[in-house]
Amino acid sequence: MIRAIAIDDEPLALMVIENYCARNSHIDLVKTFSNLKDAQKYINQFPIDLMFLDIQISRTNGMDFYKNLEKKIPVIFTTAFAEYALDGFNVSALDYLLKPIEYERFEEAINKAVLILVDKKLAEDSDYLTIRADYKLNKILYDDILFIEGLDDYVKIHLIDNKKITARISMKSILEKLPEKLFIRVHRSFIVPIKKITSIQNKVLYLNNQEIPIGDTYKSIISEKFKV
C-alpha cells in the first residue's frame, strides 16, 4: 500500500483528499498538514511514498517548496488554477488534479501512481532494466548502460560494448523505470549512470571519453548532487 501525506491550507480540500483516500484500497493517508513547516519536519523524519501538495499555500508557492526538498518524493499537485499544470509536469509530477476534484479523476491519478511506484520498487530491487524494443523484451543490466539519449518519442540506450537499443518511450517514462540512486537526468536529452561520471567541468559531464552536456534546467540538481 502507498503511504501518503496531503498538504493544503484549506480544511475542506484536506477533507476531500481524506475521504477519497479512505475509499481507495491502494493508498494509506498517514498524515495531513495545513502548513509547509510541519510537513517538512515530518518528511525529514518518516518514510512516505507519495504526497498530495497544493500549489498555493498561504501565499507560499508549493512548487518552490517541492523543488527545494532534499528527499524527492513522488507528488500529485492539487490546485484551483489550471495555468499551473505545465509547471507541475515540468518538475516530473505524477499527476495534476484540478479542484474541485472528482473521485473518478482522483482514482485515475492513484492508478497511475501505483503503476509507477510499483515499477520503481521493482527497479530498485533488481540489477537490470526491461524494455520492449525491436519486437522483443530486452533485459539490460544497469552496469552495461553508458548513457541514454532522448530522440523525440524514442530513446536510444547506449551500451558499453558500443551496441545501441532504440525504444519507443519518453525520457520521463524511462527515468521512472530507473532507480534514482543509480541514474540521473542531466539534460532534456540525456540520462547518465551516476557511477560512470568521471568528471564535471563547466557545463559538461565526462563519462571517460564521452562528453555529455548539462542542461540549464539541471545545473542546480548537478551542483547539489556533486557539490560543484
Summarize the structure.
Helix content is 32%, strand content 35%. It is built from 7 helices and 17 strands.
Your description of this structure?
The chain is an alpha/beta fold and 228 residues long. It has helices at 11-23, 36-45, 62-67, 85-90, 103-125, 171-177, 219-226, and strands at 2-7, 27-33, 50-54, 56-57, 60-61, 75-79, 95-98, 128-133, 136-141, 145-151, 154-159, 164-167, 183-187, 190-193, 199-201, 204-207, 210-213. The strands form 5 sheets. It has a 5-stranded parallel beta sheet. Strand 8 (128-133) and strand 9 form a beta hairpin. The longest helix has 23 residues, at 103-125. It is globular. 29% of the residues are buried. The mean pLDDT is 87.
Features:
single chain; 228 residues; alpha/beta; 5-stranded parallel β-sheet; 5-stranded antiparallel β-sheet
The end-to-end span amounts to 38 Å
How many H/I helices? 7
Class from secondary-structure proportions: alpha/beta
Query: What kind of sheet is the major sheet?
Result: 5 strands, parallel
The dominant shape is globular
- The share of residues in extended strands comes to 35-45%
Helix percentage range: 25-40%
